[in-house]
Amino acid sequence: MLTYDLSDMTSDERAALISRAGVDLSRPLEVARGIIEAVRKGGDEALMACAREYDSFSGSSLRVSRADVKAASARVPKELLRAMGVCKSRIEAYHSRQRFDPFEYRDEVGLFGQKVVPLDRVGVYAPGGSADYASSVLMACVPARVAGVKEIVLCSPAKGGGIGDAVLAAADMCSVDEIYAVGGAQAVAAMAYGTGSIRPVRKIVGPGGAVVSAAKLLVRNDCEIDLLAGPSEILVVADGKADPRIMAAEMLAQLEHDPLARALLVTTSRRVMEATMRELRQMSLSARRSDIVERSSEEGAVFLLAGSVSGAMRFSNEYAPEHLLLDVSSPKAALKQVKNAGSVFLGRSSSVAFGDYCSGPNHILPTKGTASARSSLSTYDFLRIVPYQAVTVSGASELAPTAEIMASAEGLSGHAQAAALRRKVRR
Prior knowledge:
Blueprint: E1 2-5, H1 11-19, H2 26-54, H3 66-75, H4 78-95, E2 103-107, E3 110-118, E4 121-125, H5 134-147, E5 151-155, H6 165-173, E6 178-180, H7 184-193, E7 203-205, H8 210-219, E8 224-225, E9 233-238, H9 244-255, E10 262-267, H10 270-286, H11 290-300, E11 301-305, H12 309-319, E12 323-327, H13 331-335, E13 343-346, H14 352-357, E14 383-391, H15 393-409, H16 413-421
Parallel strand pairs: 1-11, 4-5, 4-7, 5-6, 7-8, 9-10, 9-12, 10-11, 12-13
Antiparallel strand pairs: 2-3, 3-14
Helix pairs in contact: 2-7, 2-8, 3-6, 4-5, 4-6, 5-6, 7-8, 9-10, 15-16
C-alpha cells in the first residue's frame, strides 16, 4: 500500500501515479499477430486448430446449437435466472434513453438532415476462464438490441468442454443469433475477417485479457472496435463522514480482479485514511482471492490525503478513473466538478458492485486514464449518423461562389469547377 499527501507530492510522484503501469502488450501483440494471420489464411480449419490448442476445445463444431443453449438455460438455477432478468431489464431501461435523434430542416438554400442507422452485424466477446461473465454478455448485447442491431455474434472460450451455462443463458435472454465456443485472438480474427462458416461483423465489443486487447488493436483498421480494456480501477473521494469499512470494501472489490488493478482513496480526513488502510488489510486476509489482492495492493492500493474535496476532485480529473465513487456530504455538488471518469457513483449507498451488474449504466468502461477522451460502451456505439442534403437551384447559385473561393484557395480546381457548374443548372 502507498500513501501520499497531495500537498507534499512532487510532480514526478504525481505523474508516476497518474500514468499507472498498464498491461504490456508487446508480447501479446506478437502472439495475437500470428494467430490472426493463421485464421485469415486458414479459415475454419485454422480456427478449429487454434480452439483446440488454446481453448482445449474437444468438440466437432464450434457453433453452439439452439438446443444446447436452451439446455444450458434450463440448468441455470432459477434464482440466478431471475437476477439476470432484473439486470437485463434495468440495463435496457437505462440504455433505451440513449438515443440519437434523426432530424430534418429547411433553410434558404435547401433541405438538410440526418438518418440514424444501426449497425447490421456486431460481434461480442465474452471472457472466460475462472468465472462465467454473464454480466458482460448483458452489458454488450442489450445496448446493441436497443440500438436495433439485426445480428449479434457471440464468441466465448470453451471451459471444460463448453461455454458456461450462465453465459449461454444470458445470450439466450438477448436473442443472440450465433454463438461460437472460441476465445482469444482467434475469436477476434474470426469475427473481424470471417472464416467461411462465420461471416465477418462490422464491430467487435466486449472486454478481454491482454491477448484479446492486442488482437482488437491489430484488427481495428479493418473492423471497428469499442475500446481496449485494461486492469480494473476505482478512485474514491471521501470526506470525514465516510465509513472506512465501506471504503475498504469498495477498494477490495477492484483489487481482487487482477494483480495490476488499482484502488485509490483520496480523502480530506487522516482518520478515515488510516482506518480504511486497517480495514483493507483485515479484509484482505479473508478474501477469497487473497493472493491476487495481496499482489495488487502492493502498488495498486493508494491512499492520498487532500486539503479539500475540491482538491481531491482536481486530482481525480487528472487521474481519469474507470470508476469514481463520491462519498462526500454533497455528492451532486462534487459531480459538477467531474470532467474525466468512466462512470460516477454518488453517495454511500451507490456501490460500484451495483454498476457492475444491475443498476443500469454500462460496466464496459475506459481504463488507464482513457476516460479523459473515451466513454463507456453505450447504445451510441451501435448507431451510425448518415447526414443528407438537398440543395435547391437557387441555393446552388448562392453557395457556389463560396465553394469556388474555398476550393481555389486550397488548390482544388476540380472542386471549384463542380461548384461553378451548379450555377447553370436549370429548374
